[in-house]
TrEMBL record, chain A:
Gene3D superfamilies xrefs: Ubiquitin Conjugating Enzyme
Pfam families: UQ_con (PF00179)
Residue ranges of domain UBC core in the record: 2-152
Protein name according to UniProt: UBC-like protein
Domain of life: Eukaryota
Keyword Mitochondrion tagged: no
Keyword vocabulary terms for this entry: Ubl conjugation pathway
TrEMBL record, chain B:
Name of the protein this chain belongs to: Postreplication repair E3 ubiquitin-protein ligase RAD18
Region span, Disordered: 100-149, 175-202, 311-381
Alphabetic keyword roster: DNA damage, DNA repair, DNA-binding, Metal-binding, Nucleus, Transferase, Ubl conjugation pathway, Zinc, Zinc-finger
Cell compartment(s), UniProt: Nucleus
Pathway entry: Protein modification; protein ubiquitination
Annotated organism of origin: Trichodelitschia bisporula
Phylogenetic placement of the source organism: Eukaryota, Fungi, Dikarya, Ascomycota, Pezizomycotina
Lineage top rank: taxon: Eukaryota
Catalytic activity: S-ubiquitinyl-[E2 ubiquitin-conjugating enzyme]-L-cysteine + [acceptor protein]-L-lysine = [E2 ubiquitin-conjugating enzyme]-L-cysteine + N(6)-ubiquitinyl-[acceptor protein]-L-lysine
Residue ranges annotated for the RING-type domain, each copy included: 29-67
Amino acid sequence: MLATRRLQKELQKMHAQLAPGLTLVKAEDLTEWVLDMRVLDDNPLYTGKTFRLKFMFSQKYPIEPPEVIFVQDAEHTIPMHPHIYSNGIICLNILDKEAWSPAQNVESVCISLQSMLTGNDKNERPPGDEEFVRGNTRRPRDINFYFHDNAV
Amino acid sequence: MSTINVEDSTDWLSTTVPGLSRLETSLRCQVCRDFLTSPMITSCAHTFCSLCIRKSLSAEGKCPACREPESVSKLRRNWAVEESVAAWRAVREKVLAVARQEGKSEKGKKRDATEAEMEAELPRRTQRRKVVAIDSDDEEYRPEEERNDGLVPCPICSKRMKEADVFGHLDKCQAERQQRPPPKTAFNPPPSSQSTPTKRPQNLAHANFGLMKSEVHVRNQLKNAGIPAWGSRDVMMRRHVEWVNMFNANNDAEHPKPRGQLLRELDEWDKFQGGWAARVKKPKETDGQEYIRQHKEHYEELKAAALASMRKAVAKPVEEPKEGEPGQQQQNAPNQQQQNEPKPEASGPTGALPESTPAAGPVARADGHSPSRSSWKAPEW
């Protein structure tokens, strides 16, 4: 359907040409892609760091926005930003239903995120980050860990 | 829709004419990235496929390109773009082959027949383009050196001559030109498409489901539209929206598909929805069972621990009430549950947790920690 065709085209385009600072890491299917992103200017908060982004697409893409989060692993951290929670969840209006437009695409979202980082000089997390992150890890696999920790 | 076409504007980047990539991007819809199908222009002057813009506006009444408020009733067909797309698609493959081959032979310093052919064709082409340019706004755009040669172009055929000769030439030129078919027609809508509106059925209106209280009304709406009327209210509503968009977009097409084919496409959409819904549901069930199986051991552990600590709590408060309290609070503080903790100091340790509900401890706490989970976890327990 629409999502499949559109994503195939985007993928092909990204294989051919991708904005500077972006690398396609994984796009095995048309539901989840992983991209690496560097900030191009010399913002001391992010220089020399590569951040990993995960895109998740619904069947209604591009009418509906993709879900985009920063991924934390051995080599990648979550960038410090007043709109990025420490669990990688991003508070960006274009990723919200209200401000998303079907004319946006994976690359344009990445570029928006790049500029969001470039323009930032605050080395901080959003207010209430700790609570939010705790609230958001209340998922099956995380609860066990939490309880385990609490019980011991 | 069945054949997946992955040709893209980036095809041109590796050829000798990478600039064509831009041309092609402008002929593609920003929503689906395909060539514009039945292009419609918005009141903010952006152009999208009819179906794409209708779907977008159904989801949100804003132009996808500029976010200006827009409504379906303001959409108008964009014939010029439709013609351009059709013309471009007709030659695309050939041009692509030529543009790729040219790159290869240039590297190898080898020229083959197709290229020679193309070269022979070239002068004719450029001439034709010049004639067309008269009708466009490009008239004033001439490279500088051409303008400074002391000659002036004929306003019709753009042949350059002395200024004094122009009037004499014009009569000849006009007569000559009338004999040929005017090049303008290529860019105008073909007569067939201009006469079509009379044959087309009226566009369907989106139903106002908000006003329909009962599901029967919704169902009737679908029956009246002549489309399948099964499924939940939500499914029916979405199906109707999809149908109206498909129907109206088909109305915008130069060659509308028969109704039967549209209905088949709607059926395809339906299957897709059904398949999608089923796929979402299934893993949930298996997940739950898997989860129980995987974590049964841990749960038993927790249960035992809770039982033990409860017995301790029941036994201890008599001797050392101070120790029991902070312990309880530590466990409860992060939970913030509403169940039996409004007054933990008063009766928490003893009164609220009798032995009769040993399992209630861990279960309730788990739910307290995961309000989102309680909904799917509850039925299994």
